[in-house]
């Protein structure tokens, strides 16, 4: 089943679908397809087509559509998740999961690796959070961000709704959000360590893969099948320092700054005062408190060539 987000890449999916459709046929891939029509539609579509017998899914879109298909697979309980195979033809804002797994951005090359079906069994994350007083949860496949990262993602998502998305939109919002942003007091409990880490926090990222924000290496040491979540904590920084460090986000060297700390664990508990907000795989969700867990080696994905 091919799930197409027609709005991905500022409606590039819709414009290029005929070309992609033909290429899938040229590679003799037997498929059906459907277009999403609204936010979280891909979750419902995935669960529906699982009931119809589909076990392989191709996403034509970005990280957000991939996240929805992932959640469709994991919220159903009839079929073991290990039986599914997921692939991506990237046409999104960030395409950060594809960067990690060497999935080409060229349609022909992306479909070629789908046909070759080189697979990888990766970890999946699960975050518990709140919407007002209601507890919620979301599975994620790449990176979740809190604090400043979530605010930037939220503004970028609003730009996407207006057809103005893209990595440049993320960068613009990274800079303009600094004007009003306030730091947050946080308590982070790492695994079974007895005492939480208490900080004034600028931003936090927790994930399975290395990249978010359109190529920023927020979790440079992340290994997607080690059964552990990586975390990067950026403590309170001067705004000029933030601006100066942006370039170092792209090669991961920002973690050498004395106000940055990294952790690895299979579980994190996070409290904050005041509340901080959350994004997962670029999708804006709810607010603190949070609990992050890992589901080791639970999703088969199609990857490109080269070392992951």
Task: Describe this structure as you would to a colleague.
This protein is α+β, with helices and mostly antiparallel strands and 308 residues long. It folds into two domains: 2-123, Rossmann fold (3-Layer(aba) Sandwich); 125-295, Tumour Suppressor Smad4 (Sandwich), CATH 2.60.200. The protein is built from eight helices and 16 strands. The protein has helices at 8-26, 41-51, 63-75, 96-100, 107-116, 148-161, 167-176, 239-245; strands at 2-4, 33-35, 56-61, 85-90, 119-131, 134-140, 143-147, 184-190, 197-207, 211-212, 216-217, 229-235, 260-265, 267-273, 277-280, 283-302. A six-stranded antiparallel barrel has the order 7-9-8-14-16-15. Strands 10-11 form a two-stranded antiparallel sheet. Helix 1 links the parallel strand 1 and strand 2. The longest helix is centred in the first third of the chain and has 19 residues, at 8-26. The chain is globular, with a radius of gyration of 19 Å. The protein starts with a strand and ends in a 6-residue tail after the last strand. 44% of the residues are buried.
């Amino acid at each position: 089943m091919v799930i197409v987000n027609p709005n991905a890449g500022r409606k590039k999916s819709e414009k290029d679908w005929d070309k992609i459709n033909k290429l899938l046929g040229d590679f003799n891939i037997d498929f059906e397809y459907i277009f999403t029509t609204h936010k979280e539609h891909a979750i419902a579509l995935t669960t529906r087509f699982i009931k119809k017998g589909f076990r392989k899914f191709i996403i034509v879109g970005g990280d957000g559509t991939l996240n929805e298909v992932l959640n469709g697979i994991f919220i159903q309980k009839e079929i073991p998740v290990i039986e599914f195979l997921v692939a991506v033809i990237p046409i999104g804002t960030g395409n950060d999961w594809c960067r990690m797994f060497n999935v080409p951005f060229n349609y022909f090359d992306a479909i070629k690796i789908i046909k070759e079906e080189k697979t990888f069994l990766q970890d999946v994350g699960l975050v518990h959070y709140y919407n007002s007083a209601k507890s919620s949860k979301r599975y994620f496949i790449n990176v979740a961000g809190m604090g400043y990262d979530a605010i930037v993602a939220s503004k970028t998502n609003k730009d996407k709704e207006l057809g103005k998305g893209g990595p440049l939109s993320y960068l613009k919002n990274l800079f303009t959000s600094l004007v009003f942003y306030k730091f947050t007091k946080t308590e982070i409990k790492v695994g079974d360590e007895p005492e939480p880490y208490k900080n004034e926090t600028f931003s936090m990222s927790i994930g399975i893969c290395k990249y978010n924000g359109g190529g920023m290496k927020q979790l440079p040491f992340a290994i997607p099948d080690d059964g552990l979540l990586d975390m990067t904590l950026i403590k309170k920084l001067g705004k000029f320092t933030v601006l100066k460090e942006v370039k170092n986000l792209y090669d991961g060297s920002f973690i050498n700054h004395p106000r940055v700390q990294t952790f690895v664990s299979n579980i994190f508990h996070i409290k904050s005062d005041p509340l901080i907000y959350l994004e997962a795989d670029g999708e804006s969700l709810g607010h603190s408190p949070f609990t992050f867990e890992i589901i080791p080696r639970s999703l088969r994905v199609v990857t490109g060539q080269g070392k992951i």
